[in-house]
Design brief:
InterPro entries: ERAP1-like_C_dom, Peptidase_M1_aminopeptidases. This is PSA aminopeptidase. Belongs to the peptidase M1 family. With 230 residues, this protein is mostly helical. It has a domain of 94 residues. The chain has 13 helices and no strands. The two termini are 23 Å apart.
Length: 230
């Protein structure tokens, strides 16, 4: 209703606040998707920072309850919920989450304590969102060293979280390089387009500048329509 302009978005935010004690992954996933849409729309306004504060307020209680490490008897949905919540808090710049993500990432890179598969995406996205060229270089190095395609794809999907304009360009150039399988290029460009306002503008320009190569690569397949959609 809010998206259709029938009710105020403020009413939606008030409803969202009522879910702070919700334990269900599916509900949090839905809240997260809707907040992502709102965040994208507000990235062009003065309210962007305020919506990040709202995200931290809504997600921090469940984040504190879940913690970083699995508890005995937890199910698969609990692991998914932890990854979702920590990723959301990390991207929004929640101080404690950011500090812990940096600590765990350092241990992971140095081989002291390898991150579990469930925590890699949220940690990677947090490191990149608030990172510099060194963070991006480390992530690209992990991509090169990865034995499994699953890990390469995981890294490719989050590279767009980087926010500096020159680093965004580096990620876009990487998307068309031989390091990335042709079928995965769209994921990298899509990640940039969804990562930030600067990323959206840069990705749109990049697609236009490289349209001939992209069109020839994908012809009339579903990947070209997916690229246009993102």
């Amino acid at each position: 209703q809010a998206r259709a302009g029938i009710i105020s978005t403020v009413e939606v935010l008030k409803v969202m606040e009522a879910f702070v004690n919700e334990p269900n992954y599916t509900v949090w996933s839905d809240l997260s998707c809707n907040l992502e849409i709102l965040s994208t729309l507000l990235s062009h306004t003065d309210f962007y920072e305020e919506i990040q504060v709202f995200v931290k307020d809504v997600f921090s209680p469940i984040g504190e309850r879940l913690g970083w490490d699995p508890r005995p008897g937890e199910g698969h949905l609990d692991a998914l919920l932890r990854g979702l919540v920590l990723g959301k808090l990390g991207k929004a710049g929640h101080k404690a989450t950011l500090e812990e993500a940096r600590r765990r990432f350092k241990d992971h890179v140095e081989g002291k304590h390898v991150l579990s598969a469930d925590l890699r995406s949220p940690v990677y996205v947090t490191i990149l969102k608030h990172g510099d060229s060194a963070a991006l270089d480390t992530m690209l190095k992990l991509h090169k060293q990865a034995d499994m395609q699953e890990e390469k794809n995981r890294i490719e999907r989050v590279l767009g979280a980087i926010s500096q304009p020159e680093l965004i360009q580096k990620v876009l150039t990487f998307a068309l390089s031989e390091e990335v399988r042709p079928q995965d290029t769209v994921s990298v460009i899509g990640g940039v387009a969804g990562g930030s306002r600067q990323g959206r503008k840069a990705a749109w320009k990049f697609v236009r500048d490289n349209w001939e190569e992209l069109y020839n690569r994908y012809q009339g397949g579903f990947l070209i329509s997916r690229l246009i959609k993102v």
